[in-house]
Amino acid sequence: MTRKLITPTRRTLLKGGAAAALSAPFINHAWAQDVTYDGEVFDAGGATLNIGEWGGGWEEFVRAALVDQFEEDFNCTVNWDSSFPWFPKFVTQGPQDPVFDICNWNLPNLTQTKQAGDYFLTTDEVRENVPNAANCWEFAFASGTGITWAYMPYVYAYRTDIEGGPVDSFRAFWEERFAGKRGTYGTENGLMHAFFMATAREFGEDQYDMQAAFAALEEAMPMKVSEFTFNMLSLIERGEVDIAVHIEGEALSLQRKGVPMDVWLWDSRPILTQTKTISRYADPMQKRLAFALMNRTLSPEFLNAFGDEFLWRPTNSEARITQVLAEAGVENTPEAVEAFWVPDWDFFVENKLEITDRLNRIFGL
């Protein structure tokens, strides 16, 4: 027999003294157990925490800087899955049998999953149980679910050995000197999604002006269309692309290799975020471990180390900016972050089919 779970009244039932009203068949559901966490280390008894997060060098670093010690301190095992995308895995198993207890996301894919069902704890529920969240900038909670722990501004990465001087405006991408050597991404890449909304905001009334964005991007053709940012860096390095949509820290890694290039931060200042969610129906022990891992991810110690390695900026106000960015004038202060904005990913997901179809026609794909 299928039982109906009334999740909107969950906290009322638990905290309003109505727990006795729950019949026995419901009491074992993870959502019906008021799991809390206050920052302490506890013995998880060898439990396995299932996480979804990026692989490769990212995984190697995060394991060494965070996960290995976490497993030892909490007597648990972290089962790491890096085979993105997460959306099909979540919807295949459904909300009540989560494939991951805690998961790392780019916001377009997170928003798509969030709209598909009651998969995740809300931002407020996570904040209540993650002490380090108290020190995060407000935009860390913009998704409505989970917490953003690191971010990068979108930039243009451009070669400095071409005529015309430095890039100094969003519309520089359309300058004649870059004709045939402009770089962007396929329609499944989140950087293309953000570029679309920033273009709409620049050439139209706001980020929702799709027709203005379509017209501007058609004018920018022909463009080199890449699937991944690392491949785009290779195109810049080889001189096949002179200006490209990119993200700050990753693009600067090419400059550190000695390639004659620089970055320009889009003046509208949208940001790419790394956001972690906790599954609503994770088992109680795994949910508590997920709170603990989220808390350590948001610690200044980890964010400082991660920033030094990958040049991401922290959302914790008590973390520092890595030296490379600090030397360029980047600060982690209220004034420095107040201009940043998170694109409206709910709007994008709702209009994704139309946007994708039109862009594929513009790109000739």
Task: For the structure shown, list the relevant keywords.
single chain, 365 residues, alpha/beta, D-Maltodextrin-Binding Protein, domain 2, 16 helices, 16% strand
Structure characterization notes:
It contains 16 helices and ten strands. It is of the alpha/beta class and 365 residues long. Helix 3 (56-74) links the parallel strand 1 (47-52) and strand 2. Helix 7 (190-203) crosses helix 8 (210-220). Mean pLDDT is 90; it is low at 1-28.
Secondary structure elements and pairings:
Layout: H1 10-15, H2 24-27, E1 47-52, H3 56-74, E2 76-81, H4 87-93, E3 102-105, H5 107-116, H6 123-127, E4 147-159, E5 182-185, H7 190-203, H8 210-220, E6 223-226, H9 229-237, E7 243-247, H10 248-256, E8 261-265, E9 271-278, H11 284-297, H12 300-310, E10 313-314, H13 323-327, H14 334-337, H15 345-350, H16 352-363
Parallel strand pairs: 1-2, 1-3, 5-6, 5-7
Antiparallel strand pairs: 3-9, 4-7, 4-8, 4-9, 4-10
Helix pairs in contact: 3-11, 3-12, 7-8, 8-16
The coarse silhouette is: globular
What CATH first level of the largest domain would be assigned? Alpha Beta
Largest sheet: 10 strands, mixed
Helix % is 40-55%
What fold name stands as the CATH topology of the largest domain?
Answer: D-Maltodextrin-Binding Protein, domain 2
Q: CATH H-level name of the largest domain... which superfamily?
A: Periplasmic binding protein-like II
The percentage of residues in β strands lies in 15-25%
Mean pLDDT: 90
**Spans of 5+ residues with little confidence (pLDDT < 50)?**
1-28
Task: Supply the helix-strand structural class.
Answer: alpha/beta
User: Architecture of the largest domain, according to CATH?
Assistant: 3-Layer(aba) Sandwich
Q: First CA to last CA: what distance?
A: 48 Å
Number of strands: 10
